[in-house]
Amino acid sequence: MDVFDDLAAEFDRLDEVLTGLDAPDWERPSACAGWSIADVVLHLAQTNELVLASIEGRDSLLEREPGVALDDMMDRLVADDRGTAPGDLLARWRTSAYGSLDSLRTCDRGAKLTWVAAPLSPRTLATTRIAEHWAHALDITDPLGAAYPDTSRLRHIAWLAHRSLPYALSAAGVQAGPVRCELTGPDGERWEYGDPEAESVIRGPAAEFCRVGARRLPADRSTLVTDGPHAALALRHLRNYAL
């Protein structure tokens, strides 16, 4: 599966959802505490614009203030930029989403693009955009009672979560040995990540694994199974995104 094609598909699916919203829907509370649905879309547009800034070398836009948490920084950006009419906000999101996708596609494959926690390749940055748009699409659709079916695109998010485990554990100040994941995709596919000889294993539905990593499902409320000395700790600190 090509990550850029799958990012385009994720954008297309969210575009269908947003196109179907009426004016009052945009002001409804999302599943993100303190944010309306319009705020979530604004955040996605802003972060897509940060992708473009990174590609164009305007890295100063990605600099974090010392002592300011990323969530607080993002909340401030949204608060400072509220008030756009829904039609204009949708147009801004579309321009930023598909513009960032086009730029990522044409980047040198070996480029290292400045991002929140560390420089990323264009393909990995595209993967983070799939993860963020998928998670925030749930924040939009769940409160509306709208469907947002899981797809094979979760493969990218599961890979990102597993690959980010060392970073997530380090950020939490804990240590753990190698962990492998044996996951079942939405259509019954078997997805495996990590050293096949690792003692610690996380098993179960990829959809739940990705939701735990997105902090949309508490690990102890999932049906995921952990075996070995480090699997439960890894699952507790799993994340699909940077601090």
TrEMBL record:
<dbReference type="GO" id="GO:0016853">
    <property type="term" value="F:isomerase activity"/>
</dbReference>
<dbReference type="InterPro" id="IPR034660">
    <property type="entry name" value="DinB/YfiT-like"/>
</dbReference>
<protein>
    <submittedName>
        <fullName>Maleylpyruvate isomerase family mycothiol-dependent enzyme</fullName>
    </submittedName>
</protein>
<dbReference type="Pfam" id="PF11716">
    <property type="entry name" value="MDMPI_N"/>
</dbReference>
<dbReference type="InterPro" id="IPR017517">
    <property type="entry name" value="Maleyloyr_isom"/>
</dbReference>
<keyword id="KW-0413">Isomerase</keyword>
<feature type="domain" description="Mycothiol-dependent maleylpyruvate isomerase metal-binding">
    <location>
        <begin position="7"/>
        <end position="140"/>
    </location>
</feature>
<dbReference type="InterPro" id="IPR024344">
    <property type="entry name" value="MDMPI_metal-binding"/>
</dbReference>
